[in-house]
Automatic annotation (TrEMBL):
Residues 1-17 form the signal peptide. This is N-formylglutamate amidohydrolase. Gene3D superfamilies: Zn-dependent exopeptidases (3.40.630.40). It comes from Phycomyces blakesleeanus (strain ATCC 8743b / DSM 1359 / FGSC 10004 / NBRC 33097 / NRRL 1555). It comes from the Eukaryota. SUPFAM superfamilies: Zn-dependent exopeptidases. Keywords: Signal.
Length: 296
């Protein structure tokens, strides 16, 4: 399917209306496909573009490898959701992680001036997409797509709560309400849904994903697997969801980091299963919590 992209150059947000709409190419520093749904899909580690004028990052401990196949999985998820609603989500990619890591804070993810410009542009693009979304809807959902290599092979969902946070039942509802990346969602529905149910119960994204699974992949947290085993085997959410989720208010974005297992990403049938199940689960979430039919 031919997809047209709005590709943004440096400092383009103020000139978005005059930007060219051109096909996405491997030379795009940041690609933004604007949407009409209350959904933003970000793919910070899926880009493969390696501009020669940005030096490789070399700081000790820096992660450099791209999350393989996540860009194409995101494209297919966006197409699948578009086919369902006849309306597109917002979709944003970036340059290769070796050059700049936009899912880290500026100090950790940037080692060059041009890398800094792209880092700022990436987060500015998400903010512009969120502002556009919030003109039409009071709330939106951001999903941040990644790939992991943990041997358990399940899909991991990150809400800014670590393993100890989730294991400790006492105070968990409060942590979902006040600390998590879905605190706005939890605040909006707390009169009828226990906040922890939005984390791993029957009202959670994990439950929607569990219901939508078309193969045997598991998902954590979810009703079947509510508790991550350890922080070493669970990504609980990074800079993107931390920065762009709504904080202490009922309006704004809820954010979920989705970590897809290597064994599924590395086979065509596995990627198809990821696309189908994540798309269906996102559609369930949009219908439950974000969309009023009159908008479509
Ligand atoms: Zn990643």
């Amino acid at each position: 399917m031919l997809i047209f992209w709005l590709v943004l150059g440096t400092m383009v947000l103020g000139t978005m209306a005059t930007s060219l709409q051109i096909p996405f190419t491997k030379d795009s520093p940041i690609a933004y496909s604007p949407g009409k749904l209350p959904l933003i899909i970000t793919v910070p580690h899926g880009g493969l573009w390696e501009p020669s004028d940005i030096p490789d990052r070399t700081a000790k401990g820096s992660l450099l490898l791209a999350d393989a196949f996540t860009k194409n999985i995101a494209l297919d998820i966006a197409d699948r959701i578009t086919a369902h609603y006849n309306s597109r989500p917002h979709l944003i990619f970036q340059v290769r992680r070796r050059k700049v890591d936009v899912n880290r804070c500026e100090d950790q993810g940037v080692e060059s001036d041009k890398g800094r410009l792209l880092w700022k542009e990436y987060h500015g693009t998400i903010e512009a997409a969120a502002n556009n979304l919030l003109k039409e809807y009071p709330h939106g959902l951001l999903i941040d797509l990644h790939g992991h290599t943990h041997t358990h092979g399940m899909i991991e969902l990150g809400y800014l709560l670590n393993t100890a946070d989730i294991h400790e039942a006492k105070g968990l509802d409060e942590r979902v309400l006040n600390q998590s990346s879905i605190q706005s969602l939890a605040q909006r529905h707390k009169s009828r849904i226990h906040p922890s149910d939005l984390l791993f119960g029957n009202h959670s994204f994990g439950e929607a994903l569990q219901q939508a699974q078309i193969d045997s992949l598991g998902v954590v947290p979810s009703p079947k697997n509510p508790l991550p085993v350890s922080d070493a085997l669970y990504f609980h959410g990074g800079y993107t969801v931390e920065r762009h989720r709504s904080k202490n208010q009922r309006i704004g974005l809820d954010a979920i980091q989705i970590e897809m297992p290597q064994k599924a990403r590395f086979s065509p049938t596995g990627r198809q299963a990821l696309v189908e199940s994540i798309s269906q689960a996102v559609i369930t979430m949009l219908d439950r919590y974000y969309l009023t039919r009159a908008k479509l």
